[in-house]
Amino acid sequence: MTNHEFYMKLALQNAAAMKGQTDPNPLVGSVIVNDNRIVGVGVHMKAGEPHAEIHAIRMAGEHSRGATIYVTLEPCSHYGRTGPCAVAIVEAGIKRVVIATLDPNPLVSGRGVRILEEAGIEVIVGVCEEESRKMNEVFNKFIVRKTPFVTLKSAVTMDGKIASYTSNSKWITSETAREDVHLLRNQNAAILVGVGTVLHDDPQLTTRLPNGRNPVRVILDSTLRLPLEARVVTDGEAPTWVFTTPSHDPDKRKALEAAGVKIFVTERTGRVDPSEVVKLLGEQLISSLLIEGGSEINGSFFEQKLVDKVIVYVAPKLIGGRNAPTFLAGTGLEKMSEAVELSDVSVQTLGKDFKFVGYPVYP
Ligand code: AOF
Ligand code: ZN
Predict the structure, then answer these.
(1) How confident is the model over 102-115, as a mean pLDDT?
(2) pTM given for the model
(3) Residue 128: left (phi > 0), alpha (psi -120 to 50), or beta?
(4) Is the CB of residue 97 less than 8 Å from the CB of residue 121?
(5) Which PANTHER family match (predicted)?
(6) Most buried residue, 2, 112, 146, 157, by CB count within 10 Å?
(7) pLDDT, mean of residues 17-36
(8) Which of 22, 25, 70, 123 to mutate to test the pocket of ligand 1 (most atoms within 8 A of CB)?
């Protein structure tokens, strides 16, 4: 490992510790090194608060002069909620900037580097680039597309079922895998299920972790069947947003709104249109969405090519049953040659279960 990689990895690790609390902003870490000594460290902790470099520069004080700064993302060039970091770096007298990756934000991309170079600062781009990109997979999509990065999560038996033929599903996976799901909830800005899941399980959809952050609870409900007594309506643990169609009952809408539920009406009639949902969520600055739906909801997002990442927990159990649901319904693709392949697939053992992660590559 080179010196550059060593300090960049430190910046990446610090940044990664903020996972789940910076959105819609990226995870960014920074380390300032002067004369082989770390003189400042900083991370971006929350949107609206100072950027990573600013914390590090403040900590380093006079030691910034002549130093090298490591940043996991190109220093910004725009006047946003905070001033441009590239300018702060110039003013601090830093002489070299090592960057993991350029900022995909069209407001910034390349401009931060230009400010630095025009000030005569040496700029190196691309140290630990892959790690930094991967860490900000959510931000990278959201800042360009303005719709959330969508993760589809499911838990299945070894024969691919998400429930028995009687709709019983508690529990497929063991405790360790279920704890992992709470981490996922903590890292996503919103979680989505169909009203069928609410009617069947009355879930809370909250993060059961110490200091866990609850995602916004999104329910797809074309005719507003959501009961006023449902826990997502009454518990006040997190905002609940319901997406419905023009064919809903206006009185039910009023009652749900009075109970604090926010209602969005999509244009399409029949079933709620998933692509309208992600568009509206993007407008609400929801940068990441975790789908914990049943087969039909999952299938509809998949068929519209809206799923960016798939996480499947597989339990070494068999349940069988021709009517027991699998995790993707809908019509499905006709031939195996049309199958959507996943890239960057990984497998991890979690207690007795396995966690598969992959990224669909749509043709
Ligand atoms: C940096 N360092 O630590 C972060 C950056 O709304 P603002 O002003 O906080 O700006 C957010 C944008 O700034 C965000 O979209 C991304 O382009 C960049 N984030 N840049 O130099 C940081 N968090
Ligand atoms: Zn900045």
Answers:
(1) 94
(2) 0.91
(3) left
(4) yes
(5) 2,5-DIAMINO-6-RIBOSYLAMINO-4(3H)-PYRIMIDINONE 5'-PHOSPHATE REDUCTASE, DIHYDROFOLATE REDUCTASE FAMILY PROTEIN (AFU_ORTHOLOGUE AFUA_8G06820)
(6) 112
(7) 94
(8) 25
